[in-house]
Design goal:
Distance between the termini: 24 Å
Structural class: alpha/beta
CATH architecture of the largest domain: 3-Layer(aba) Sandwich
Strand order of the largest sheet: 2-1-3-4
Order of helices and strands: EHHEHHEHHEHEHEHEHEH
Number of domains: 2
CATH class of the largest domain: Alpha Beta
Helix content: 40-55%
Radius of gyration: 19 Å
Shape: globular
Number of helices: 11
Amino acid sequence: MRYSYYPGCSLHSTGVAYDKSVRATFEALDAELVELDDWNCCGATAYMSVKETVACVVSARNLALAEKQGLDLVAPCSACFTVLNKTRALMDELPEFRQNVEASLAEADMTCKFETAVRHPLDVLVNDIGTREIASRRVRSLEGLRVACYYGCQIVRPARAVLEDSEVPMALDELIGALGGTAVPYPPKVRCCGGMLVATFESVAQRLCKELCDWAGSADADCIVTTCPMCQANLELLQNRGNGRPSRRVPILYFTQLVGMALGCSAADVGLQHNLIPLNFDFPEMVEAASNVE
């Protein structure tokens, strides 16, 4: 299996642990990621509300590059996933707008049919590779680890990363469970973390993150796993700011960090050294052969 890979700005900077763990996990599953050559910023979700045409052109350039590779495009960042898919949708819905975008691409001698599928790593893992296949390749177990699975708001709506209930998604919970972990009941799994409000109304983002961490604490979760670099940063950094701090710090991991460790990747391979709040858990080696996993 081969996929185009769009890391986006975050995964080459603050979200480097996500980049490392996605690459390590896919490699462990014999799935090849081909990073787009000369990719650019997706424009981010905020830019869409400032200069929509320019934002779509910026995003469309990445889609044009992916189209040349002829592979599905994997975008781990929830914002990138959303913006790239939104651009594709707008091109289908607004013909005149599409003409403007295509004219801008033409100035750079580029064309795009906007047919390349933009996918999230969670979708690829559970639908292309399959939870059962991933479980059969376990080298370590997540047994004893209680996990709050946090999807965030962007990969469940409007463009769903996985075709399931957008209010109560379960794909990530089932993946963690298949690897031996316990996905604790976590009702706020699709609530917003505050996103870019951290730069404008930080107190609001603080409150939202505190509620998410408190809920995980009340479920006696050992950690929260997320699918988004903005969510990871907000939850990790904001849970200890302001009044009403949580009784304990909750480790915030990318879901691919846990999957990668279960598949035998090292802590360095999945970037655990980059997490500010360490996860105190010894990943036990599998006692029974992986082939015996039901």
